[in-house]
Design goal:
This protein has one domain. The protein contains 5 helices and no strands. The longest helix has 28 residues. The chain is elongated. The two termini are 26 Å apart. The mean pLDDT is 96. It is a multi-pass membrane protein. Keywords: Membrane, Transmembrane, Transmembrane helix. This is DoxX protein.
């Protein structure tokens, strides 16, 4: 029988892997200028010129999560904290712009980033 802590650890690891996958897809969408990215940014008041910078920030977070899984857990912890901050800002931007029809996406990404942060916080110490 599995201990509750083992189930939690497995769930957090899976959520961290999902965070990596979801953000990788999002970075690729930003890199190719996907229509939904351009439309969403326009709706919340972010100019096209910012999209590449947002992609770089998000890609750095993904790279840090991967590195953290491969060894230096503190890098993963820092990357997860960075992604949490990024998606808190994304949710706040949606709220400020009163764009609620698709706010579930940044909220879901925020939840995955929080799970990754929790995963690395449990194992970094």
């Amino acid at each position: 029988m599995f201990a509750l802590s083992e189930v939690l650890a497995t769930g957090l690891l899976v959520a961290t892997l999902l965070c990596i996958a979801a953000n990788t897809v999002e970075v690729a969408a930003k890199a190719v200028g996907a229509r939904f990215v351009l439309r969403n940014c326009a709706e919340v008041g972010i100019g096209r010129e910012w999209i590449r910078y947002l992609a770089v920030i998000e890609a750095a977070g993904v790279a840090g999560l991967v590195l953290g899984l491969l060894g230096p857990r503190l890098i993963g912890l820092a990357a997860a904290a960075g992604l949490v901050s990024y998606f808190v800002a994304a949710v706040a931007t949606h709220i400020r712009a009163r764009v609620f029809h698709n706010i579930a996406y940044p909220v879901a990404f925020l939840c995955l980033a929080v799970a990754a942060l929790w995963h690395f916080a449990r194992s970094a110490g």
